[in-house]
C-alpha cells in the first residue's frame, strides 16, 4: 500500500526527513518521501547555491518560498533532506507583494521606445482580479517571454474591487 503524500498547508513551516534503519538497510521516512514528492510534483525551482546543497523553491499555490537543504554533511549525499519555509524579505514595505505568473499577456506602450508590461488574472484576497504589472526598469521588461512562468515582485496598488490591481516598480524573478 502506498503512502498518502500531501501538498503543503499554511501550517507547514518545517519538514525534516529522517532515515530509518531496520537492521539491514536504510530507508527514507514519510517526510523524506513527501519532500521528494513536493519538489518533483508541486514546487518550482527558483535557484540553487552552495554547489547544489541548498535549493530555493516557490509554492505556486501560495507563493511562499521554501529552502531545501542537506545539512548532515557527514552522511552520504548530505543526509536526509530538510524543507523549510523561508518566507519573504523582512525589509519589504507593507504593500510589497509577489505573484507567480504562468498565463499572461505581454503588452507594449508603443513602438521602439515603448515599455513592455504584463496583464493577467490573479486571485487576490480570495477574489479574481485583473492584474497589470509594470516593471522597475527596461532590463526586467526584456526578460519577458511568452509561456515562460516567472515571479513578479513589486508594490501593489488596490483602489477597490471595481478596479484592476497594479503591481508597480516590479522585479522579474526567473524560475529557471
Query: What CATH architecture label of the largest domain applies?
Result: Beta Barrel
User: Roughly what percent helix?
Assistant: under 10%
Please, how many helices?
2
- Which CATH class of the largest domain? Mainly Beta
**How much of the residues is beta strand, in percent?**
35-45%
What does the largest sheet look like? 6 strands, mixed
What's the arrangement of strands in the largest beta sheet? Answer: 8-12-13-11-10-9
Give the terminus-to-terminus CA distance. Answer: 35 Å
CATH topology of the largest domain: OB fold (Dihydrolipoamide Acetyltransferase, E2P)
Concise structural overview:
This protein has 176 residues and is mainly beta.
